[in-house]
Amino acid sequence: MDLKSNTIEIVERIGYTSDKLIEILIEAQLLNEEHYITEEQLKIISKELKISFSKVYGIASFYSMLSTKKKGKYVIQICNSGPCYINKAKNVVEAFEKNLGIRIGEVTTDGLFSMEYISCFGACQIAPAVKINEKIYGNLDENKVKQLVETLKKEAI
Amino acid sequence: MDKIIVTVDGQKVSVESNTTILEAARKTNVNIPTLCYHPDQNIKGSCRICIVEVEGQNSFSAACCTPIREGMKIKTNTMKVREARKMIMKLILANHNSECISCKRNGNCELQTLCEELNIEENDLDKFTNLLPIDQSNPSIVRDQSKCIKCGRCIEACDEIQGVGAIYTVNRGHEMRIAPAYEKNLCDVQCVYCGQCINVCPVGAIYEKDNIEEVWRALEDSNKHVVVQIAPAVRVALGEAFGMKPGSIVTGKIVSFLRKIGFDSVFDTNFTADLTIIEEGNELLHRIQNNGKLPMLTSCSPGWIRYIEFFYPELLGHLSTCKSPQQMFGALIKSYHAQKTDINPSDIIVVSIMPCTAKKTEAKREEMQDNGYQDVDIVITTRELAKMIKESRIRIEELDEEGFDDPFGISTGAGAVFGATGGVMEAALRTVYEVVTGNELEKIDFENLRGISGFKEANVPVGELNINVAVTNGLKNAKILLDLIKEGKADYHFIEIMCCPGGCIGGGGQPIPSTNEIKEKRIEAIYKVDLLSELRKSHLNPVVKTLYEEFLQQPLGEKSHQLLHTHYTDRSKE
């Protein structure tokens, strides 16, 4: 099935009422490897739920768990809350930036990686920590970041 | 309802139990400042400028959204309240592009007024205005986000009142903005250009595309024959921009002003409103007699036309093919009038003064032309007319009242009522009844079709036929009827739909404020114009008769089809 019919299937399964919007958006996002909801999907959801397109977009852009912009296949979420910060999360950011050639908020040209900040996800005991596609990596330094990037690149091929 | 006694600044007041602090204070003549609050909208409580102290409470309460409690002691004017309000205002100002002197709303801005009232002097906070590009992408509406204070009134007007939803909040927290999805330009989303967002904006963040300079330039050009038409709703609202009471009728003064600044002919859109009734009335009868698509829907309101083209293209066959009175006027000026006066249509400039922002886009529609001449060249709103009057330094208060030029200045009361919701229907019924039965309609006031209610209906026996009609205004209300038509449940012959709440008198180009209270006054004035008219039925307009004899020959005839009728486009994919 294509993206369109898959999205319609989600709406059919979850429900056509406006209170189901967020649930639908979360599932719709899972259909895309690039971790975002496409304009086409938002339009379908808006039509099916009879909510204006701008409102559906507005709500999707409100929540940090949802994205309206293309992200990488691997979304590197770097914690910038207190404990990670004092454990030099800044060095981790720099190491990723160096290894990937992108900055926070950007996507690599091959579409494999994107980087963003995230608030504390409770891995303070292994700070500085990052979350990559729901998996947590801790006690990071420059070397570990380099290895991690290489492993992920291999995994992707 | 139970009464509750509260104290506002030491004064006891007895109010109903569901009253807010804001309303209770107003009863004691204390006018708590507001910004996001709008009398016709839901309470938002987002700007916090209305905060007050409540005895026994550590934090402030927002007066607009806090209901009163028995024995509440409210203080609205303490040092603490004044200082806090000032700080809130300074925070808003730090993010506001305060270029007041060149702002569209200079002198009529709620933020500016409030700064004066709160005694704001220097702002010691750093400015962090976001100078995003101004959206000038379309002929009707301009958005300047650097002025936006994020009160959310425009969203309510667009999403909840009109049900269009062209704009909404985007992002979160300090990155939140009000914009179309993907922060596109308005021309790239399904915006109907009704301008209801403009009428509720407290500042200059949304305004009409200004065409004043084009009008001045046309008037300066001695080679051009410049003709002007005034819509029915303009004459009952313009006075407000000059401090007159809402509902003041200033037709004669407008005519006199327009003549003074050099228009070659000053005509009345009410004339082509009469003509619309003849064409539309005949179209209705034709549809009824020939099993045509019913119910027929009116087509005068260009915001409504865009709405059906965007959202209900499958119902386009129900729309009357009649052009709006503005467009009929332009088409006749560049054909009949050009012939009569022996002026080349290329030397004629048609200017319209409209209560409407969508009219600017309507005039530019590709199909609104004949022989390569666009029917209407320049459209300005009531607000722009007020600006031109101010700019000319002519004191409108002192002007004598003058009458329109012949022949297109002659109109009936039926043309006048087009400006209010229900008016087109009332005018049509007056004519259809007499044309069909040949008898005089005795009771010509259709009171149950008047007023700003969102839905009105009537059943009118016309000879052997019982005509069922409905009237609605505001697009969210229109949607209800459209869904009924789709389900085959709309048992009507004729439905009048006006895009703006209240009809054209509540149009997006009217003086601000344009609250329901003010709209009702404008409606009263419209019916006063009707009542004072010598003729009150379109088919009795002598010039309309002459026009058919000399030029159009017959309603729905070949000439009519060429000049006065149009077609529509499915825009659902745009």
UniProtKB/TrEMBL annotation, chain A:
Q: Where does [2Fe-2S] cluster bind?
A: C79, C84, C120, C124
The cofactor binding remark recorded in the entry reads: Binds 1 [2Fe-2S] cluster.
CDD domains from the UniProt entry: TRX_Fd_NuoE
Has the keyword Iron been applied to this entry?
yes
Q: Which cofactor does it need?
A: [2Fe-2S] cluster
The residue range of the signal peptide is none
Which keywords are on file for this protein? Answer: 2Fe-2S, Iron, Iron-sulfur, Metal-binding
Domain of life of the source: Bacteria
Supply one GO molecular-function term: metal ion binding
* Family affiliation: Belongs to the complex I 24 kDa subunit family.
Q: What is this protein called?
A: NADH-quinone oxidoreductase subunit E
The scientific name of the source species is Alkaliphilus peptidifermentans DSM 18978
From the broadest rank down, the organism's phylogenetic lineage runs: Bacteria, Bacillati, Bacillota, Clostridia, Peptostreptococcales
Automatic annotation (TrEMBL), chain B:
Q: Which organism is it from?
A: Alkaliphilus peptidifermentans DSM 18978
A GO cellular component annotation here is: membrane
Concerning PANTHER family, the annotation shows: NITRATE, FORMATE, IRON DEHYDROGENASE
- Which keywords annotate this record? 2Fe-2S, 4Fe-4S, Iron, Iron-sulfur, Membrane, Metal-binding, NAD, Repeat, Translocase
Kindly list the GO molecular function terms attached to this UniProt entry: 2 iron, 2 sulfur cluster binding; 4 iron, 4 sulfur cluster binding; ferredoxin hydrogenase activity; iron ion binding; NADH dehydrogenase (ubiquinone) activity
| Location of the 4Fe-4S His(Cys)3-ligated-type domain | 80-119
GO process annotations (BP) = ATP synthesis coupled electron transport
Domain 2Fe-2S ferredoxin-type: residue ranges: 2-80
SUPFAM superfamilies, alphabetized = 2Fe-2S ferredoxin-like (SSF54292), 4Fe-4S ferredoxins (SSF54862), Fe-only hydrogenase (SSF53920)
Q: Taking every annotated instance into account, which residue ranges of this chain make up the domain 4Fe-4S ferredoxin-type?
A: 139-172, 180-211
- Name listed for the protein in its UniProt record: NAD(P)-dependent iron-only hydrogenase catalytic subunit
Cell compartment(s), UniProt: Membrane
Member of which family?
A: Belongs to the complex I 75 kDa subunit family.
In terms of Pfam families, this protein maps to: Fe_hyd_lg_C (PF02906), Fe_hyd_SSU (PF02256), Fer2_4 (PF13510), Fer4_Nqo3 (PF22117), NADH-G_4Fe-4S_3 (PF10588)
Source superkingdom: Bacteria
